[in-house]
Design goal:
Globin-like; Globin/Proto; globular; metal-binding; EC 1.15.1.1
């Protein structure tokens, strides 16, 4: 059973707040620790996404039929995709002071996922929540409430930018659920 956003839950991803200078420092400092283990963290994030939202596997032809967690964890294809996800996040974190670069990277990501991969945009919302969960669990010493708040703002900005790109390329179903 997939998790769904609760009724009446405030959707912080739909209305991002701008990042403050302190937010940017918090994100970059915490990311420096996370990125040291980027392969393992990326795999943990993708596996959590697949466990929490099993329908998300449909977009991954190379490992969508893998049902065992151990098989997924050992999959070279999953590890490669996890590294791409982490490298994309790293590019965004490195360029927090460069809004043009951020916009460019997010537009490319949005176009690729809308046009080539045909991923429903709601999965970016799911992924954002999973990223926050995994970082909070794996890096509880770093992910204070203030740092988590900064990450929430960044992930909201990413989600909003990607869904804006989806609309620009003519994506017609910006649903908030999968069913």
């Amino acid at each position: 059973m997939e998790r769904m956003q609760g009724e009446g839950e405030v959707d912080h991803l739909e209305r991002p707040s701008p990042l403050t200078d302190k937010d940017k420092v918090n994100i970059q400092d915490s990311w420096a620790k996370v990125y040291q283990n980027c392969d393992d963290v990326g795999v943990a994030i993708l596996i959590r996404l697949f466990v929490s939202y099993p329908s998300s596997k449909q977009y991954f032809s190379k490992f969508k039929n893998m049902t065992e967690l151990e098989e997924l964890e050992k999959s070279a294809q999953l590890r490669n995709h996890a590294r791409r996800v982490m490298n994309s996040i790293n590019t965004l974190v490195e360029n927090l002071e460069n809004p043009d670069k951020l916009a460019s990277v997010l537009k490319l990501l949005g176009k690729a996922h809308a046009l080539r991969h045909k991923v429903e945009p709601v999965y970016f919302k799911f992924l954002s929540g999973v990223i926050l969960e995994v970082l909070a669990e794996e890096y509880s010493d770093v992910m204070t409430a203030e740092v988590a708040g900064a990450w929430t703002k960044l992930l909201a900005t990413i989600y909003t930018s990607i869904t804006t790109t989806y609309k620009e390329v003519g994506w017609t179903t910006l649903s908030s659920s999968t069913g």
